[in-house]
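Backbones bend. Our protein:
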Amino acid sequence: MNKLKILILHNDLRVYWKRRLQFLHEFLKTKDIEFTAIEIFGVGSPYDFDLSKDTEPWRICLFPALTDDQLTKSKIEAAVFSKLAEINPDIIIAGSIAFYSGALGLRWAKQNNRKFIMFDDAKPSNVKRNFLVQGIKNLITRQIDALWLPSDDYDKEYEALYSKSRFFYFYGYNCIDNQLFNQQGEKKSDHKKIISVARLVPIKNYENLLNAWKFVEMNDDAYELIIIGDGAAFKELNSLANTINLKRVRFLGSIDNDKLPQYLNEADAFVLPSWSESWALVVNEAMAAGLPVLLSNKINSANTLLKENENGFSFSPGNVKEIQQKLIDFIQLPDTAKKEMSENALKTISRMDFNNMGSELLGAISFLESTPNKPIKLAAKIALKLWRGRYNTNSWDKL
């Protein structure tokens, strides 16, 4: 009997994906399942700062030195289809059909009577489309066999479009290597530091955070704000900090990923003021380091991970007074309460780890193996034939 073959396909599989993929490869191997990962593009990503290259034979990059705008859609399609035909997977896992990976992976799966799992961490309400475009996307998406979401907090919006009976829902792929960030020994709460980590771009809303921090400096004489990250707004934000005469803000720029756990473990809390985030995995990292989190209520992970007054506080990103109040609320907590929040953060994130991810995927595989292939209707077949996906990440950084 041939081994079951599982293949994950995406436009890029860098940074957070790397440890997930390594875990899944080893985990599925113990279940006698063959696992392959295909990354379409090697450059041209918001994660281009990740320069490390993968050498394992089960990790494949189709265009390691090219971006999507250096290639025709026909060439991208031909390369994806050729590699899929060569590997001949039983189940394909890929991103949203908005991307090349989802659109092409789903079409190949339908043409070859294979099962298709789509993963997505953006809620439909996060992406504004006109009626026609949304209708075509819904038509194509209804052809998938399973939907892999970060948590069941996403169900309501997806069920409104597709209903839960249309395909199998499962959860937990938006996880990190919790052990990598986990503090060894008892977590201290006397560093007098609040840390933030993100690309410095408009959608991260650091202008409002800095204006809120001015109030903190007027009402507390010890705490420091540490900002890690680089981006188009770096100089502008530094200039704002100087203009409003902030004394206890440090911009550290980019740091190596392997040094981030140390910085998180030397802080007392984590803050992220974004106008919008499809998930924000840095929240997982902060909580795995035992940090209480102060989060914008427009960050999707906050809906799943943040427990108000238990492991952190939430605020409206446009309300500077609310941001400053939540910062002060945390700073003025007694050490015992900060320690309890830290312990609660660790408990919360422990339920969203690699083992849970593997277990959820096995459940989906078992379900798909026991269900017949879904026939595709003519209208969906035509739409899928015409749509090849894209790789436009320019909107990720904009308001």
Notes: The first helix runs from residue 16 to 29. The chain has two domains: 4-175+353-397, 179-350. The mean pLDDT is 93.
